[in-house]
Specification:
8-stranded mixed β-sheet; AB_hydrolase_sf; Rossmann fold; alpha/beta; about 325 residues
Length: about 325
């Protein structure tokens, strides 16, 4: 077919019902996906290999002298904090939002001992490089577990801890999750698609209610699994699942010694690997109304804010109310 004929065919196809642009495919470090703010890179050596951590560093027009560090969850990136970054900078906060190693626009090492301590140390090294001292540490989901570990490691260097629907509030292995090998996690992750992401997020993140505004974040993740680095992305994801399941932070909550705010969507039911748990125990997992209250009781002096109608991601399902609660909570 000649080029003019091909162009005409595509033009006609684009006007036909059901036409859609090809699904995007991104590189292993999310090459091709644009973030809403300039992306910077922190290059460092860890576990005898050079790595780079992508991060956002967004400054306010009228600074209040405080910095908030936003730590993303397992199926999230620094970019998914866009609404919170705009709200926080509008309130005077400098905001730093990194992509952790193994995620999004950061390195995907083929061999790396992923631990929450290691990710906390990486984040601490980034903040030292930026000259940031005593920030407010805000973590969501897996980032909530990381935030807790950061506060445990560096209690004198954290002004305040905020955990948003953190996982690790219960020990899934102790509650019935059987041992899962890295190869099993890897094979499960290779099956990731836009449809599977959307179905999971509808059920857990958004309390059964899907909105079109969530779709860009689905395509962000699905594009990684359509791209040339699919295997590297899936392998690091498997390593991270193993880290999450084998390193629950719940047992260390009484040791947290910084002011803590818990923000919990009450319709969350997250429990990684729940489908592999025996049916008679499955329904007991991911009960966030109970888990949030238990965490608030275990962490000395913690304050709990509940979002009755939100699932795992209240910052995305109710952004205005969430941002107001966050800014009020860290302003105390």
């Amino acid at each position: 077919m000649s080029r003019p004929a091909l162009a005409l065919t595509l033009l006609l196809a684009a006007t036909m019902p059901g036409w859609a642009d090809p699904a995007p495919a991104y590189g292993p470090e999310l090459e091709g996906y644009a973030y809403p703010f300039p992306v910077e890179r922190f290059t460092f050596t860890s576990q005898r290999q050079p790595l780079q951590m992508a991060y956002l560093d967004v400054r306010p027009e009228t600074p209040n002298g405080r910095t908030a560090v936003l730590l993303h969850g397992k199926n999230f990136c620094a970019a998914t904090w866009e609404g919170q970054i705009r709200a926080l900078t509008g309130a005077g906060y400098r905001v730093i939002a990194p992509d952790q190693i193994g995620f999004c626009k950061s390195s995907k090492p083929a061999a790396y001992q992923f631990t929450f301590r290691q990710l906390a140390e990486n984040t601490h090294a980034l903040l030292e490089k930026l000259g940031v001292t005593r920030p407010v540490i805000v973590g969501h989901s897996t980032g909530g577990m990381l935030a807790a570990h950061y506060a445990l490691l560096y209690p004198k260097e954290v002004e305040q801890l905020v955990m948003v629907n953190p996982i690790g509030l219960e020990d899934w292995s102790a509650k019935g999750l059987p041992p899962v090998s890295l190869d099993q996690w890897y094979q499960r992750d290779l099956k990731t698609s836009a449809d599977s992401i959307r179905a999971y997020e509808t059920a857990t993140y958004y309390a059964g209610h899907w909105e079109a505004r969530y779709e860009p974040w689905v395509e962000m993740l699905a594009g990684l699994y359509r791209g040339p680095g699919k295997e590297a992305v899936a392998w690091d994801s498997a390593l991270l699942y193993d880290m999450i399941v084998t390193q629950p932070v719940v047992y260390r909550f009484p040791q947290i010694a910084v002011p803590t705010l818990l923000i919990i969507g009450q319709k969350d039911n997250t429990a990684i690997g729940k489908d592999m748990v025996p049916a008679d125990r499955r329904a007991t997992l991911g009960n966030y109304p109970e888990l949030g209250k238990a965490a608030a009781k275990a962490i000395p002096g913690a304050r709990l804010v509940e979002f009755p109608n939100s699932g795992h991601a209240p910052q995305m399902s109710e952004p205005e109310a969430f941002n107001a609660a966050l800014i009020e909570g860290i302003g105390r």
